[in-house]
Design brief:
Elements lengths: L2 E7 L8 H12 L9 H27 L13 H17 L6 E7 L6 H10 L4 E6 L9 H11 L8 E4 L7 H18 L4 E7 L3 H5 L4 H16 L6 E6 L12 H10 L4 E5 L8 H17 L4 E5 L6 H14 L7
The protein binds the ligand C=CC1=C(C)c2cc3[nH]c(cc4nc(cc5[nH]c(cc1n2)c(C)c5CCC(=O)O)C(CCC(=O)O)=C4C)c(C)c3C=C and fe (ii) ion (FE2) (2 copies).
One fe (ii) ion binds next to loops.
Length: about 325
Amino acid sequence: MSTAVILMNLGTPAEPTARGVRQFLGDFLSDPRVVEIPRPLWLAILYGLVLPLRPGKIAPAYREIWGRSADGEAVEGSPILHYTRRQAELLQQRLADTRPDITVTYAMTYGKPSLDSVVHRLRRQGYESFLVFPLYPQYSATTTAAIYDRVAQIYRNSRDVPDISLVHDYYRHPHYIRALAASVRELWDRKGQADKLLLSFHGIPRANVTKGDPYYRQCHETAEHLAAELGLGGDRWQVSFQSRFGKAEWLQPYTDKTLIEWGEKGLSSVDVLCPAFSADCLETLEEISVENRANFIDAGGGQYRYIPALNIRPDHIEMLATIVGEKLPAKPRR
Ligand SMILES: C=CC1=C(C)c2cc3[nH]c(cc4nc(cc5[nH]c(cc1n2)c(C)c5CCC(=O)O)C(CCC(=O)O)=C4C)c(C)c3C=C
Ligand SMILES: [Fe+2]
Ligand SMILES: [Fe+2]
């Protein structure tokens, strides 16, 4: 029986226009996993304020990153979509000889290609077994569980539900930690070590963690393992959280405030790595590489270097192949 591996990431607008961003944010921000404010209040805010105003503000940032990369890869359209497609192609090539029983494809939680459309196509092609692989190293209900919900929704009314496995997290998988460390070391070998390494993770509301989301703990464990792998003392690195949205408190310390403080103290150099992002996207290419670079330098900081996401690095593809092998062990030949 053939199995399909579906690599999944968040999603992105179909085009870098206010209309494209509105459609994407409408789908994304109406998911109760993403925003936990009581429904009637949140829907009033979403349709009354966010969707009329935010797309016009964010679309220019999307235009800036459209076709852009941080690692020299020629990118077509939205970087996150491009990298997810390439990750699937390269993982398929990597598994071709050893696991001919596995087909690799990709889908997005919001926007296109939707998980729904991909699963139905695969089912028509005869696949009866799936591994849904969220490309989120750290589990959060806002991301990973949102994908689990989509899987459950697809089959809610089906009698014959296929064999589905799910990847939960890989925040301290040795291959993940080693790939992150190698990406940092490659920069240090070429250009030397900065004064500080900032590990900036996407934030979530603090209340989500208080209510039981393990994301904060997993981010810190990733950081501790990475620092140990790099042999980095506690005074040389720090964790921070980026991409705050809305008025509530999110996980702290905030990336933008940290970089402004470091700039004001006259820090001469900083390297920034975003371990929660398996592909470069708006949040890394714009918020980290452009906005926060300016925050740090305008506040008086020196050199600022953004270290790209793992994207299509061979060690990242190898890590994906290893996790697939662990979830789907090869059956012994008879
Ligand atoms: C509103 C709440 C949000 C939560 C909670 C959240 C969690 C979260 N998101 C990612 C990864 C990505 N987010 C991206 C964009 C993005 N995120 C939010 C809001 C929340 N994210 C918004 C509104 C946006 C869109 C941009 C904007 O309007 O500011 C992206 C990039 C997509 C792209 O097109 O490039 C990624 C990737 C994680 C990992 C996470 C929780 C752990
Ligand atoms: Fe986000
Ligand atoms: Fe952002």
